[in-house]
Structure prediction request, 230 residues.
Amino acid sequence: MQNLTKASFLALMIAATPLWAQDATTTEEAPAEETTTEAPAQTPGDAAASEQTPATPSPDAGLNMGTPEGQAAAGTDPAAPYTKETHGDWELRCAKVEGVEEEQCQLYQLLSDEGGNAVAEINLFALPAGGQAVAGANIVTPLETLLTEQITLSVDGSQGKRYPYTFCTRIGCISRIGMTQADVNGFKAGSAATLSLVPAGAPDQRVRLKVSLTGFTAGFTSLQAQVAGN
Prediction:
């Protein structure tokens, strides 16, 4: 039932209504075979007493009992991502994926420009051993990004790497990148990375966004533990 959307739930309610109406009509038309005893009429005094006696409120009415850290709030969409842990400037965000028993987690950071405006975001995930990449990341940039210029990512002013865009959606353009062990080690040892992109409306300019690496080592260690546990 929790997986039903509001619209589909209402559709089920509407579809069931004729059945309820049919049951009600059948009950009304059936002849009474037994004599039923009517309940005694309520006296005016009893009615006044019931109206004057308010329901006793619970002593903790209106108080929120809180949600343990690391758990999604009660009543929220179980598939919605939530912050399980915070490591410096990185959030360990987790969510349930349909068909997968264990929840899936990523390291998340929102990237802002010098004016404090949110411009891009990075979602980094650990990969099982056996491949050239030990981690991957989905980097989301605005739709007005010049795709042919790709994006660059460097650490502490060192020579960076260029990555192409993979696709664009309504939320922005996404670059899916792979990170080798050397790339991850650079993130662990560095203090800040720089993500560079070129606006489509100003192809002669380059926007540089700071990626804080504070807390990355602890966050990535926790992320790898999640993958190992799964």
Residues 1-37 have pLDDT under 50 and may be disordered.
